[in-house]
Amino acid sequence: MLKEIYLGIFRQGNRIYTKNLIKGSVYGEEIINVENIEYRFFDPFRSKFAAAILKGLKSPLKEDSTMLYLGAASGTTISHMSDILSKGFIYGVEFSKRVASQLYLVARNRNNLAIILKDANNPKDYSAFLPHVDFLYEDIAQRNQYDIFLKNALIFLKRNGFGMICIKTRSIDVTKKPKEIFENIKEKLKNDNFEILQSLNLEPFQKDHYFILAKKDF
Q1: What integer is the mean pLDDT of 95-121?
Q2: The pTM is what?
Q3: Contact between residue 218 and residue 150 where contact means Cβ atoms under 8 Å apart
C-alpha cells in the first residue's frame, strides 16, 4: 500500500514513487497503477535525491515551489521533481548539448519545466530571464562545485530559500578523504551564512556521495 511520506513522495516498503504528472514512462522506470493513478518508481541508485529521501532527508518541497536545478543532465531526477512540484516551476540548467537533447524530450510535455542550455559557472548569462526561486538544487560533478552553487545562490535564491547540494567527492579532489571534503563544504556553507538543516551520507546507494540541505539566512 502506498503511503505519502512527504508532499508528492510515496513509499511502499523500501521503495519510493512520485505521482506521474504526464502518463507514461520517462526513462524506462517502473510504473505502478493505484486507483487509476500512475506512480513512477524513484530509484535511489539512479537519483541522489531519491537516495537522500531513503537515508532520512525531510523534504521541504511544496507543490507550488519554484526551483533552479543545476546539472539537469538527461532528466532522471528533474522529471521526478516535476511530478512533485506539480503547481510550481523548475528551471533546469545543463551545459552539454548532447545530454540536453534528451532533456528537451522530457520537458516538451511538462508545462512546469524549462531547459536552459548554459554553463552554471556563469549564472549572469541567464540571470536576465530567471526570477528568484524557493529552491536551488545542484548536482554537478566539478571541482569547483561549491563555488558554482554559491554564485547561483547569491543571484537567484530567495532569503530563507533552501539549497540542496549533491556532493560527488571524487570529482572535487581524489587525493582527500570523502569525509574531509564533505566537512569542508559544510564549513563553507556556515561561513557564507547558510544554516545546515541536514547532512547525509548516501551510501550504499551512491558511493562517496553526500547530500546537504541548507537554508539561506541572508
Answers
A1: 90
A2: 0.95
A3: no
